[in-house]
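Minutes, methods subgroup
Present: GH (chair), OT, SY

1. OT presented the first of two proteins processed in the latest run. Sequence and structure tokens recorded below as shown on screen.
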Amino acid sequence: MKSKRQTFVTLLLLGAVVVLIGLWISRRNSVAIPSKGEWWAIQDATILSMDPKLPESFKGTVLCRGNTIVEVGARLKLKEDVRVVSGLGKVLTPGIALAGTRLGVVEISLEGSTKNDAMPSKEPLRPAFRVFDGFNYNSSLIPIARVEGITSVMVQPFGGLISGQSAMVDLFGHSEQMLVRSPLAVHAAIPSGRSAFAWLKLRQAMKEAKLFSMYSSQYQRRKLRKLHLSELDLEALSQVVKRKIPMVIEVNRAADIRTALRFADEYNIKIVLSGVAEGWQVGTALAQAKVPVLVGPPHNLPSRFDRLGSRYDNAALLHQAKVQIAFSARGGAHNIRAMRHEAGIAVAWGLPTHEAIKALTSNVYSFFGLDKRYGSLQRGKLANMVLWSGDPLELSTRALHVWIRGKEVPMVSRQTLLRDRYKNLKTLFRLPNQR
């Protein structure tokens, strides 16, 4: 009798422990919904949510409160106090998020005083350089990108072998309000030609960073051998060594892509590859290593020798090999709005439409660990959304409404203001004797 009672008590305690663990896990994974803020919704839209638990496309409603998505579904019942935006006949997607831009750090490409994307130095190793320090939230190029459905961008440094540290920003607000994360990643670029020497310099830098991260106290007491990199450079690279942030390496030649995989394995670091013009040749190796890639606009006419294997279906072949892909503007600032059309070209060459939209919206966030709050239309995610007039990958489609962190942004840019100013030429240039 006593043993039965002990068994019952034991089972009861085990059950209580299981329940408590379940409650702890659910609370840990739950996302806080704002207790204050306006209720609003986009109703009857064709929703491309990028949520793997939902159909790829369905007609439904997205309910939000303040800056956060509260519910997504096909048959949501809305209360009377909810402000409704009609999405009938329109397409709703997460906002476009692009990697590899110079947005906010380059205003006029041919005017050096408007460029903050690189250090004015011949020093090839610049890991401490933080590009966000030069970010201009008043750039006239930001509204031009924003009214075309681009809600977030990676602002990337350029120049040298190691260019510096990038940042992710939302395209609405003032300066620090726009910042999502900085540093986001450390960036390196393997040049066309002399790539073996470039890998040597990268290995030297990583070895010093590893030594610094292991013996930082000895370094501060000057009991460590002299290192070539500065303390700030070593601190930046030590974040990569500790796997806190990834290193984005721009490579195009298939041989250099394989070297990059060996390099990451050698130093046990997280990497994201950019460019990858010949990536289709090593898709299996990339998939096995679980290394994501940022593909640029498709080309089939190589501009350099490390891109001889360029082809239009590069993105499609990488996807077939089960490589995670996202689209990169490859340093663009002025015409990055064209990237959704480039994604449409990738679809024409075999990339599934759903995967192309994922590569424009959600994948960049997942590459850099920001997908808990960004990238899809799901409960608890920030309301970065675009309501389109039709298929987002079609040339004729326009962004009708854009929301960033739940705020509907004005669909006004320098270009729209110039259009409105000069659209009625007869009135503008009427001669004095004309009535």
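2. SY then presented the second protein from the same run.
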Amino acid sequence: MKKQEIKKLSKDEVLKNIEKHKKDLFNFRFQKMNSQITNPAKIRETRKTIARLKTIFKGKINA
């Protein structure tokens, strides 16, 4: 997700997306251990997306 897309989301949507991406990251780790992952770059991309979501969420709470 891009930063502009994340800014348009509400607080509840941001929280739902964080949980969704955390589950995806959990599954990617198991796929990596079993050598089933097709695109290892997705792990890094997912981690960065979670960080972006958390940053925007903190800004919405403080505003």
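Chair's summary of item 2: The radius of gyration is 13 Å.
Next meeting: continue with the remaining queue.
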